[in-house]
Amino acid sequence: MVLVPQTLIPVTHKMTLFPLSLCTGEARKFDPNFKGPIYNRGCTDVLCCILFVLALLGYFVVGIVAWSQGDPRKVIYPTDSSGQFCGQAGTRLEKKPFLFYFNIMKCASPLVLLEFQCPTTQVTQCPTPPDDSSLGFCLTAVPFACTKNDQDYYKAYCKEGTDLSTTVSTGGGSKGLVIAMVVSLIFIILMRYLAGIMVWVMIVMAILVIGYGIVHCYMEYARLKQQPGSDITLQDIGLQTDFAVYLEIRQTWLAFMIILCILEVIIVLLLIFLRKRILIAIALIKEASRAIGYVMSSLFYPLLTFALVALVIAYWAITAVFLSTSNEPVYKVFNETDCPHSRETCDPKTFNTSNISAVCPDAQCLFAFYGGETYYHKYLILFQFYNLFLFFWCANFVTALGQVTLAGAFASYYWALKKPDDLPAFPIFSSLGRALRYHTGSLAFGALILSIVQVIRVLLEYLDHKLKGAQNKFAKFLLSCLKCCFWCLEKFIKFLNRNAYIMMAIYGKNFCSSARDAFFLLMRNIVRVAVLDKVTDFLLFLGKLLIVGLTVVVGSYLIAHGFFSVYAMCVDTLFLCFCEDLERNDGSTDRPYFMSPELRDILSVNETDEDVEEPRKDEDVAQAEAQEQREEDQDIEMKQQVIERQAQEQEGEEEEAEKPQESGEEKPQ
Questions:
Q1: 100, containing H or E segment
Q2: Which of 41, 218, 363, 370 could be 327's S-S partner, Cβ–Cβ 3.0 to 4.6 Å?
């Protein structure tokens, strides 16, 4: 074995940067030809585009087949036990438009459930329905015990005068949604000219509105103290279609009050700790207001997105209804005595002339259920799944199209050196055209990934609903973990897709390359993401809460979200462009910044604000490490010099010792 002496090798500070570069990628280099969104680009993710087109064609085929086989009357009009529609012209039930439900408690036996029919006598005389019945149904409640007199049962559980006024909207909700839309539009327009003032008004008003909600909930909670029956719990009443029932229970107002108190405390604490960062976020919102002012058509683009999403929802809902009603009525043989043909499929039109009626004189051919024996009916559940999956895919594609369109328009504003002279004539239409012409496949790819995760979440919710009565705690725990993981995965994919679409709108790359570039850019500016981007999202969230509190309409949050999404997309686009600008340019004459002077001053390119102390701390740490490394290198050099000096001294001593010996040998000669 040969022992090699250990040598001291100096380690430079650059070696510590190697793992970091793998996590964040290489920074952008200066390019004198880069002037914003690239116009000379090619088609991306063509294979996914072809797949998406084929899927849409298959979706249309499924819809056409469903529309030809389905019958929506099965869910609109009531049917009797024979599967015939009540009150339909040309049938024997033409003069009987109302459906009366039997006492279902008389049918609760295993024999009845196997036979698919209720063999007991229900009523001796069909009761006269009330004149003001709704939708052809007499809505009855299931009694806890069978009554002796069917007429008394009818009078007790099918009350005259009952309508659906408490469950069917009378138009007030629609007016409220219109008001929410108008308020949102006015709020956005005011933010264009008074961004700073409106943000502070939004913050104060949100706190006051939530405070008023807390006071109102407490007053209602105190008022119901003297009301009889108001102390029952929400668990006791269960699920009710009439929301007004919940408002007469004290526990409901107590829950509302607790939720609002927690929300109020969280908002106040965030405002206290983020007070200085809010000033920077307001500056970013002001810059977004200027961008929206130059691209005013962006305010109305959410209407196009809303219309397309509504079209997708309508197509999915109609197709789902036709698919669910495309089953054919199946008739079975029912008899009171033993019969070899019992529960066999029969045809009521030819039953009286068949051999079954001769063998079993007391047998009847009655309606059992809706189904079918063809391949279409056997694989009907797969068509429903395909309908659901394409719904998610199309809805996510429409959302992605809106995001990349707005991102392209706002990126054109940011990278215009002379604003607004260098802006294109129609930035929204130009960006929309580029997205549809070159990036349909990439948008479909991103929407496909998100849709797969969302469908998995739907399946997990379905399994959770089916396993609610199960006693296996491990299965429930595992299912809860899976639901949580896929919820987090969906949020991450949405965040990554959003930023990938911004990079795609700027550089025209495919989805994977854009997602990689966006992720690395965010990792290189992770502190700015937390300081600026998320604080701005928090302020816009307060604006949504304010509109919901002012209109007090269910669904107004979605309306407000549609309009505020323009601001959110503008802020995210400007933020990524700002980070790119800092990497590409240095503010000199040859490499000027594209950002506005106001944005440059507030966001502190020189990093004088305390919110950018973290990057400076990182630089200080790096400099300290480099200084320590230099000191270690100097120590090593000094040690090496000492060793060399000692070696030289030792050699000198050996030479001096050899000289006397040589002189002694020369004397005898």
A1: strand 99-100
A2: 370
- Checking if the pLDDT of 485 tops 80, the result is yes
Containing structural domain, residue 470: 21-64+297-319+380-584
Who has greater pLDDT, 401 or 206? 401
Tokens of 441: 């496949």
Single pTM value for the model: 0.69
**Whether residues 516 and 433 fall in one domain:** yes
- Per-residue pLDDT tens over the stretch 205-219: 888 888 988 998 888
Question: Is 332:343 a contact under the CB 8 Å cutoff?
Answer: yes
Q: How many C-alpha atoms does 384 have within 13 Å on its Cβ side?
A: 15
- Domain check: are 46 and 87 in the same one? no
- Choosing from 163, 183, 201, the residue where a domain stops is 163
Residues 97 and 45 in one domain: no
Look over the chain and give the mean of its residue pLDDT values, rounded to a whole number: 74
Q: What is the mean pLDDT of residues 472-476?
A: 80
Instruction: Give counts: helices (H), strands (E), the chain.
Output: 23, 5
Regarding whether 53 and 152 lie in a shared domain, the answer is no
Predicted pLDDT at 577 = 86
- The answer to whether 147 and 156 have CB atoms below 8 angstroms apart is yes
Q: Measure the CA–CA gap between 173 and 494, rounded to whole angstroms.
A: 30
- Do 312 and 418 fall into the same domain? yes
DSSP 391-428: HHHHHHHHHHHHHHHHHHHHHHHHT-SSTTTTS-SSHH
Element of type H or E holding 368: strand 364-371
Say how far apart CA 366 and CA 361 lie, in whole Å. 14
